[in-house]
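Render this sequence as a predicted structure.
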Amino acid sequence: MKTISILKRYKFEFILNLLAIIFYFFIYENLHFQLSEKIMFSTPDSISYLNVSKWIDTGKISNSIVIRPFLFPLILFFCLKIGYLTIWCFNLILWIISYNLIYLTVIIITKNKKYAVLSTLIFITNISLITMSFHALTELTATFYNGPIFMYNLFQS
């Protein structure tokens, strides 16, 4: 009974999340590529993060340890222990949490659902950010942290 009342109360948010995830997978399907370790580590940045992760694992020194921060390679290290698809899952979860935090931040600040939906839709339809989730890069980690802060600062002025 309590579950039904929660679903009724947050029906709109549930639908918004469902549409966002459908849009995400629609973009994925239309990119016409197979998610693989080769795609995940196809950029110079992702390779340098991987090198730092390998340093954490093996202690093998790499030039990348001087130029890359430690946190994301540590996350990569743990994800790679399970499998490279865990990195994609991690990025997808950050993407979902990010737009929900943006929605909640705008609702709290403006008390206006229209602004919250507009802000969330702008984020959700950012195809570049969706495609970044298929790579081992820090963009979604930074967005997860900075997205709600940006919205807070935007609507506070």
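Summary. The longest helix spans residues 85-110. Residues 36 and 85 are 8 Å apart (CA to CA).
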